[in-house]
Design a protein that fits this description.
7-stranded mixed sheet, alpha/beta, globular
Length: 281
C-alpha cells in the first residue's frame, strides 16, 4: 500500500512539473507592442513604407512567446491563417498594414505570417482578437515601449524610424551610428524631404524619457489621423460614430464580406491542438 502511494506521489509531482513548464502562466506585465514604421527613404523598409503612405505604416502587434514548448497543430494553424487572410485582405490598405520587407503593394503573406507568429503561436489569439489588437486606436493610454532610431549629424539627433506602444518597459533598438544621450526626433517634411512627415514641425524627444512626450495620443493625433481622419472619429456619422472603437469598425466591415459567416460561426478561439512537427516558414 505504501509503495503504491509513493508511486502515485512521484508521478503526480512529475506531471505537475511538466504541466507547469509547458503551460507556464504569463507574467502580470507581459511586454506587447503595437509597432509602426515611419516613411524614410534613407532606409529600405522606410522607403517601401513611403510608397504607400507619407505618414506611417502599421508593422505588427508584437508579443512574447508564452508557449515555447507547445507546437501548433497544422490543421488549426492553416485554418486560422486562412481566416486571418480573409480579414486582412479587406483592410490592409485602410490600416496601412503593408509588407515593408519585400513588396508594400502586395497582400497577404507577410501580414498573415505576422499573425501566425505573434498572435496564434505566441498567445493563441484568434484572427478577430489579433485584428482588434492591430486596430485598438481608441485606447490612447498605451505608453511608448519600443523605439528604433539612428543618428543623423544633419539633424543632430537620433531619427526615429520605428516605434511601438503597449505594456512593459521601454526597449531601445539603436541602429547605425546611434548616439547615446542625443535626443530622439521625428523630422517634419520641411526639414527632410526623404524622412520628414508632412503637416508637422520637426519634434525632438528627451533621450532619457522619450515617452513623456511621445505618447500614443500624440502619435495618433499628429500623425495617424492626418492620413486617416476616421481614426479620430472624423468620418461621416452615417458610417461611424464617435463611441465606436476602430476595431469595432474593422470587424463590422469584415462582417459584410463574403465568407465572414463561417468565421463568426466558428468563433474566435484558437485551441492549442496536439504537438506536431513545425512546418518551416
Amino acid at each position: 500500500m505504501s509503495a503504491a502511494i509513493l508511486y502515485f506521489t512521484f508521478f503526480a509531482v512529475v506531471f505537475n512539473v511538466a504541466f507547469s513548464f509547458l503551460y507556464r502562466e504569463e507574467p502580470e506585465t507581459a511586454w506587447e507592442s503595437l509597432v509602426f514604421v515611419l516613411p524614410n527613404e534613407h532606409l529600405a523598409r522606410g522607403g517601401r513604407c513611403k510608397t504607400h503612405s507619407q505618414f506611417y505604416c502599421l508593422d505588427k502587434y508584437i508579443t512574447e512567446n508564452s508557449y515555447e514548448m507547445v507546437e501548433l497543430n497544422e490543421v488549426i494553424r492553416d485554418d486560422r491563417a486562412a481566416q486571418f487572410t480573409e480579414l486582412i485582405n479587406h483592410q490592409w490598405r485602410r490600416i496601412n498594414m503593408v509588407d515593408t520587407m519585400i513588396d508594400p503593394s502586395n497582400c497577404c503573406y507577410d501580414q498573415t505570417t505576422t499573425y501566425i507568429v505573434y498572435g496564434l503561436q505566441n498567445k493563441r489569439m484568434g484572427p478577430l482578437q489579433y485584428m482588434r489588437k492591430l486596430t485598438d486606436y481608441w485606447n490612447e493610454d498605451k505608453p511608448l515601449n519600443y523605439i528604433a532610431a539612428y543618428y543623423s549629424p544633419i539633424h543632430c539627433s537620433n531619427i526615429i524610424f520605428s516605434l511601438g506602444f503597449g505594456p512593459g518597459d521601454l526597449k531601445r533598438d539603436p541602429h547605425g551610428d546611434f548616439l547615446r544621450g542625443a535626443a530622439y526626433s521625428i523630422p517634419g517634411l520641411h526639414a527632410d524631404s526623404k524622412a520628414g512627415i508632412p503637416g508637422i514641425p520637426s519634434v525632438a524627444f528627451n533621450y532619457h524619457n522619450p515617452g513623456a512626450q511621445l505618447t500614443f495620443q500624440w502619435f495618433k493625433h499628429h500623425i495617424m489621423c492626418q492620413d486617416h481622419p476616421w481614426i479620430c472619429g472624423e468620418e461621416p456619422p452615417d458610417r461611424y460614430s464617435s463611441d465606436r472603437s476602430a476595431s469595432d469598425m474593422i470587424v463590422h466591415d469584415n462582417e459584410q464580406s463574403p465568407g465572414s459567416k463561417r468565421l463568426r460561426d466558428q468563433g474566435d478561439s484558437s485551441g492549442t491542438g496536439s504537438a506536431t512537427k513545425r512546418r518551416p516558414r
